[in-house]
């Protein structure tokens, strides 16, 4: 069955939402089910980790993640490859009761394998503090 790019874009956007909810709830099985066995995560420092290390990293996020959301996300589909990019904003409540907001630029690459979309690669880098203020005060595009 073939789908249109619009259908694929909608599907990928929904899947990205599932990933963010899985990160928020630290649902490690869901993260595994949404990523390939050969998944690679690359951080801002250039270090790469495989799926198992990525899942462990999520499990070890300190405190309670109260929300994970995407801002200014765009999806692009190129045949059986989809690329989603934007800003991921996470709110955390630390064990001492303090609140932390983390914002990173993200790019996630999805691939359709055997008819199912799975994330094969993810990259993130911190949003510089001056970009946070600029994007929060900027007019909608």
- Average pLDDT for all residues: 91
Strands across the major sheet, in which order?
Answer: 2-1-6-5-4-3
- From the N-terminal CA to the C-terminal CA, the straight-line distance is 35 Å
Radius of gyration over alpha carbons? Answer: 16 Å
Number of helices: 4
Query: What is the structural class?
Result: alpha+beta
Helical percent range? Answer: 25-40%
Bulk shape: globular
Major beta sheet summary: 6 strands, mixed
Uncertain runs with pLDDT below 50, 5 residues or more?
Answer: 133-141
Q: What does this 3D model show about the protein?
A:
With 141 residues, this protein is α+β, with helices and mostly antiparallel strands. The chain is built from four helices and six strands, in the order ααββαββββα. The protein has helices spanning 5-25, 28-34, 51-59, 129-137, and strands at residues 35-42, 48-50, 64-78, 81-93, 99-113, 116-126. It has a six-stranded mixed β-sheet with strand order 2-1-6-5-4-3. A hairpin with a 2-residue loop joins strand 5 and strand 6 (116-126). It is globular, with a radius of gyration of 16 Å. The N and C termini lie far apart (35 Å).
Provide a quick synopsis of the model.
The protein has 141 residues and is α+β, with helices and mostly antiparallel strands. Helix content is 33%, strand content 46%.
Defining key terms:
about 140 residues, alpha+beta, six-stranded mixed β-sheet, 4 helices, about 35% helix, disordered C terminus
Write the layout of secondary structure elements.
Elements: H1 5-25, H2 28-34, E1 35-42, E2 48-50, H3 51-59, E3 64-78, E4 81-93, E5 99-113, E6 116-126, H4 129-137
């Amino acid at each position: 069955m073939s789908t249109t790019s619009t259908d694929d874009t909608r599907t990928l956007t929904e899947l990205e939402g599932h990933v963010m909810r899985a990160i928020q709830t630290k649902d490690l099985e869901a993260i595994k089910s949404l990523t390939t066995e050969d998944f690679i995560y690359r951080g801002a420092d250039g270090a790469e980790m495989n799926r198992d290390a990525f899942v462990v990293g999520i499990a070890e996020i300190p405190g309670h993640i109260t929300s994970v959301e995407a801002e200014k996300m765009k999806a692009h589909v190129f045949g059986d490859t989809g690329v989603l990019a934007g800003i991921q904003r996470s709110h955390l409540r630390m064990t001492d009761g303090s609140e932390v907001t983390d914002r990173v630029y993200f790019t996630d690459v999805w691939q359709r394998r055997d008819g199912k979309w799975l994330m094969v690669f993810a990259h993130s880098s911190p949003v510089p503090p001056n970009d946070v203020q600029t994007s929060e005060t900027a007019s909608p595009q």
